[in-house]
Specification:
5 helices, mainly alpha
Length: 113
Protein backbone atom coordinates (compact mmCIF):
# COMPACT_ATOMS: atom_id res chain seq x y z
CA UNK A 1 0.00 0.00 0.00
CA UNK A 2 1.31 3.44 -0.88
CA UNK A 3 1.96 5.15 2.46
CA UNK A 4 2.24 8.66 0.98
CA UNK A 5 -1.21 8.42 -0.59
CA UNK A 6 -2.65 6.78 2.51
CA UNK A 7 -1.20 9.51 4.72
CA UNK A 8 -2.70 12.20 2.52
CA UNK A 9 -6.12 10.55 2.69
CA UNK A 10 -5.93 10.41 6.48
CA UNK A 11 -4.89 14.09 6.55
CA UNK A 12 -7.89 14.97 4.36
CA UNK A 13 -10.20 12.92 6.57
CA UNK A 14 -8.99 14.57 9.77
CA UNK A 15 -9.44 17.98 8.15
CA UNK A 16 -12.91 17.02 6.90
CA UNK A 17 -11.77 17.76 3.34
CA UNK A 18 -12.03 16.36 -0.18
CA UNK A 19 -9.39 16.42 -2.93
CA UNK A 20 -9.26 15.68 -6.64
CA UNK A 21 -7.30 12.95 -8.36
CA UNK A 22 -5.17 15.75 -9.85
CA UNK A 23 -4.45 17.12 -6.37
CA UNK A 24 -3.10 13.85 -4.98
CA UNK A 25 -1.49 12.24 -8.02
CA UNK A 26 1.63 14.47 -8.04
CA UNK A 27 2.31 13.50 -4.41
CA UNK A 28 3.11 9.99 -5.65
CA UNK A 29 4.72 10.94 -8.96
CA UNK A 30 1.67 10.42 -11.16
CA UNK A 31 -0.12 12.63 -13.68
CA UNK A 32 -3.78 12.43 -14.58
CA UNK A 33 -2.77 13.43 -18.12
CA UNK A 34 -1.22 9.97 -18.53
CA UNK A 35 -3.53 6.94 -18.99
CA UNK A 36 -1.19 4.44 -17.25
CA UNK A 37 -0.95 6.83 -14.29
CA UNK A 38 -4.76 7.06 -14.09
CA UNK A 39 -4.88 3.27 -13.99
CA UNK A 40 -2.18 3.21 -11.31
CA UNK A 41 -3.93 5.68 -9.01
CA UNK A 42 -7.13 3.64 -9.38
CA UNK A 43 -5.19 0.51 -8.37
CA UNK A 44 -3.58 2.26 -5.39
CA UNK A 45 -6.91 3.66 -4.20
CA UNK A 46 -8.41 0.19 -4.54
CA UNK A 47 -5.68 -1.23 -2.27
CA UNK A 48 -6.44 1.44 0.32
CA UNK A 49 -10.20 0.79 0.12
CA UNK A 50 -9.62 -2.94 0.64
CA UNK A 51 -7.28 -2.28 3.58
CA UNK A 52 -9.75 0.07 5.25
CA UNK A 53 -12.55 -2.46 4.74
CA UNK A 54 -10.48 -5.22 6.38
CA UNK A 55 -9.87 -2.85 9.30
CA UNK A 56 -13.62 -2.23 9.65
CA UNK A 57 -13.45 1.41 8.60
CA UNK A 58 -15.45 3.35 5.98
CA UNK A 59 -14.07 4.00 2.48
CA UNK A 60 -11.30 6.54 2.98
CA UNK A 61 -11.04 6.73 -0.80
CA UNK A 62 -14.44 8.47 -0.94
CA UNK A 63 -12.52 11.70 -0.34
CA UNK A 64 -11.03 11.67 -3.85
CA UNK A 65 -13.22 13.13 -6.60
CA UNK A 66 -13.02 14.25 -10.20
CA UNK A 67 -12.08 17.83 -10.94
CA UNK A 68 -14.72 19.67 -12.86
CA UNK A 69 -18.44 20.13 -12.90
CA UNK A 70 -19.59 17.04 -11.05
CA UNK A 71 -16.99 16.63 -8.26
CA UNK A 72 -18.02 12.98 -7.96
CA UNK A 73 -15.80 9.98 -7.30
CA UNK A 74 -14.68 7.85 -10.21
CA UNK A 75 -16.28 4.64 -11.41
CA UNK A 76 -13.59 2.69 -9.59
CA UNK A 77 -14.95 3.92 -6.25
CA UNK A 78 -18.35 2.36 -6.93
CA UNK A 79 -16.83 -0.76 -8.44
CA UNK A 80 -14.65 -1.51 -5.39
CA UNK A 81 -17.56 -0.66 -3.07
CA UNK A 82 -19.65 -3.23 -4.94
CA UNK A 83 -16.83 -5.80 -4.83
CA UNK A 84 -16.51 -5.27 -1.06
CA UNK A 85 -20.26 -5.76 -0.61
CA UNK A 86 -20.80 -2.17 0.46
CA UNK A 87 -22.81 -0.95 -2.52
CA UNK A 88 -25.55 -2.72 -4.45
CA UNK A 89 -24.32 -1.45 -7.80
CA UNK A 90 -27.38 0.61 -8.70
CA UNK A 91 -26.56 3.02 -11.51
CA UNK A 92 -29.06 5.79 -10.78
CA UNK A 93 -27.49 9.06 -9.70
CA UNK A 94 -29.50 9.44 -6.48
CA UNK A 95 -28.41 6.02 -5.17
CA UNK A 96 -24.79 6.66 -6.11
CA UNK A 97 -24.76 10.16 -4.61
CA UNK A 98 -26.44 8.98 -1.42
CA UNK A 99 -23.94 6.14 -0.97
CA UNK A 100 -20.98 8.44 -1.64
CA UNK A 101 -22.19 11.19 0.72
CA UNK A 102 -22.77 8.63 3.46
CA UNK A 103 -19.25 7.28 2.99
CA UNK A 104 -17.71 10.77 3.11
CA UNK A 105 -19.66 11.55 6.28
CA UNK A 106 -18.61 8.25 7.87
CA UNK A 107 -14.96 8.82 6.96
CA UNK A 108 -14.96 12.36 8.34
CA UNK A 109 -16.67 11.21 11.54
CA UNK A 110 -14.30 8.27 12.00
CA UNK A 111 -11.09 10.27 11.52
CA UNK A 112 -12.09 13.55 13.16
CA UNK A 113 -9.36 14.88 15.40
Amino acid sequence: MNQVLYGELVRLARGRLLATYSDVSPLIGLSMENEPDREEIARLLGEIAEFEHREGRPMLTALIVHRGNDNNPGEGFFSIAHDLGLYNGRRDQISRLTFWVNQVTSVHNHWRS
